[in-house]
Amino acid sequence: MKKKLRLALLLSIVTILLSVLCIPTQVSASQKAIQTIKLKPGEAKKLNIPSHYTNNTNETMYLKPQVYLSGWGHAGGNMVSVTSSPAILKLLPGEGGAFSYTVKFAPKVKPGKYLLELSVYEIGGYVWNDFIIEFIVESEEPSILKIFNDDPHNQKLYVYQSSQGTYGYVDKNRKIIIPAKFQTAKPFNAKGAAPVSINGKYGFINKKGAYLIKPQFDEIDDTGFHEGLVGVRIGKNWGFINEKGKVVVKPKYARIFFYSEGLAPVTLHNGKVGFIDKKGKMVIPAIYSSVTSFSNGQAIVYKNGKAYYINKKGKVIKEAKDILKWEYDE
């Protein structure tokens, strides 16, 4: 009787061992890994995860990946697609191979966090849960970080900075009117034009975000249009364009200042300052170290340590003894 019990126990142990050996654990896979990946709706990304398998059996194996989106079932319905290469991995005895994966969430997927379970199973065999990956689907439009309200002529549109450091425009209710796609953005002027930059070039947009003047300049005078002209820089030289973007005064000056009463101060590359008219003609010679714009027919100029009032013909009216040197000396 005891011999029969010992024999039965031995047979049970052998049966258990054989059943274990029949389970296809002889396919050695990478350990389960958890990753967090950020992407936008409609964006495809390749997964950088270990996915190498080796067939340690004497039979050919066929492996296939399967995807589940937590809460949404197999492949997440129409929410997400996972493409594997190859679609089916054929492994001969002793052979190794790997999958590569590309994940893409549908364009209309709601921003948020999603858990993706990526499994690999042997066709006709067992399922292996290899990876659980967290995806953060980001909004297409960055959130509002800061709103600027510093200009009385802003056309009721306010510059805002997004969480990604770009700039756009919102209304008084914080509704985004022009998305944040610019590197810099300035307030709208009284005529509904705003200077913006993108890809390192400056231009002007209207209140709908359409370009009035396409970005093409290296810099634009922050003070905007004055008397229909605005200063722009191309390379190291400044000039003026009109409201249609046409160059009116050829860029050749080291610095420019806005037009006032038909004249604009300009600085030559030798550091001397004079005044030009709207055709670019130097009407007051560049012989000063510093000047102000004209107001009420007069400007203040600085020369040889003294300040003077001049008229629009460049004639000295009187010495400006009440002007301190440091106020205008460069």
From TrEMBL:
Database matches in Pfam families: WG_beta_rep
Keywords of the record: Plasmid, Signal
Organism the protein comes from: Paenibacillus amylolyticus
Tagged with keyword Signal: yes
Residues that span the membrane, as ranges: none
InterPro entries the UniProt entry points to: WG_beta_rep
Signal peptide: 1-29
Designated name of the protein: WG repeat-containing protein
